[in-house]
Amino acid sequence: MKRLSDYHIHTVFSDGKDTPEEVVKTAIERGFSEIGFSDHSYTSFDESYCIPFDKISEYRECIRTLREKYKDKIKILSGTEQDFFSEMPTEGYDYVIGSVHYVKAGEEYIPVDESPETIVKASEKYFGGDVLSFCEEYYKTVAKVSEKTGCDIIGHFDLVTKYIEKAELFDAECRRYRNAALCAAEELLLSGKPFEINTGAISRGHRSTPYPAQFILEYLMARGAKFILSSDSHRKENIGYGFDKYENAVNGESLIDALSI
Question: Among 21, 80, 148, 218, which residue has the fewest nearby CB atoms (within 10 Å)?
Answer without folding.
Answer: 218
